[in-house]
Amino acid sequence: MTAPVFVVDAVPGAGTFVLEGPEGRHAVSVKRLQGGEDLVLADGRGRWADCVVLTAEGKDRLTVQVSGVYEDPEEEPRITVVQALPKGDRGEVAVETMTETGVDAVVPWAASRCITQWKGDRGLKALAKWRSTAREAGKQSRRTRFPEVSDLMTTKQVAALLAGADFAAVLHEDRDHPSGALATAELPEKGSIVLIVGPEGGVSPQELAAFEEAGAKPYRLGRSVLRTSTAGTAATALVLGRTGRWS
């Protein structure tokens, strides 16, 4: 089993390091790490260190020996999911499972048919929850590079994002759509892939037209229609397998 991951602002160099604060408390009081056990310190941006516990003190202080420092390159192709805002806490569920699966970036999207609206302080709190969920899920799945969660985007902003993608797809519920299945689409080996997940009410004709003009064609995942909170995870897994990132 791989060593548990704890997040630090900056990964320390060789020598000893004291892990304190919330991460130290989690290591000492929740994980109950003891001398001689392994752990990883990561900044969530690809840089990480192999460590061995020297001592655990009190409830939130862990002294470790750093044995090696490394940096993981960004994965290719880079996978971004544009996620329309789901109802309730389904957005956090989507971010959590996509992070565990391996998505590289998540873009919250204010689609026209979204029931949920992010406005004012409520929107800022919701965005903070998505980012916190990505961080915690990244730790739990023992990633060293966590997904970026962007600010909320409008349809116009999403269309601009699509213009720079090497491949872009709108996940569509029509099983007979002429664009066909994502499982047979021609995918790039490098560059960027953007997958768009619509809201419960679907992507509007106007949004679909704007995305197609920006280069994103509609593709179906399979015969069944997935919820907006699970479609991004399924599509990410499919792309990871087809591009060799899960090889």
TrEMBL record:
Q: Where in the cell is it found?
A: Cytoplasm
Gene3D superfamilies hit by this protein: 3.40.1280.10, Hypothetical PUA domain-like, domain 1
Q: What is its EC number?
A: 2.1.1.193
User: What's an example GO BP annotation here?
Assistant: methylation
Superkingdom of origin organism: Bacteria
CDD domains xrefs: RsmE-like
| One Pfam family here | PUA_4
Q: Locate the Ribosomal RNA small subunit methyltransferase E PUA-like domain: which residues?
A: 19-66
Instruction: Note whether S-adenosyl-L-methionine occurs among the keywords.
Output: yes
Write down the PANTHER family for this protein, in alphabetical order.
16S RRNA (URACIL(1498)-N(3))-METHYLTRANSFERASE, RIBOSOMAL RNA SMALL SUBUNIT METHYLTRANSFERASE E
| Function noted in UniProt | Specifically methylates the N3 position of the uracil ring of uridine 1498 (m3U1498) in 16S rRNA. Acts on the fully assembled 30S ribosomal subunit.
Protein name (database record): Ribosomal RNA small subunit methyltransferase E
Provide the species name. Streptomyces exfoliatus (Streptomyces hydrogenans)
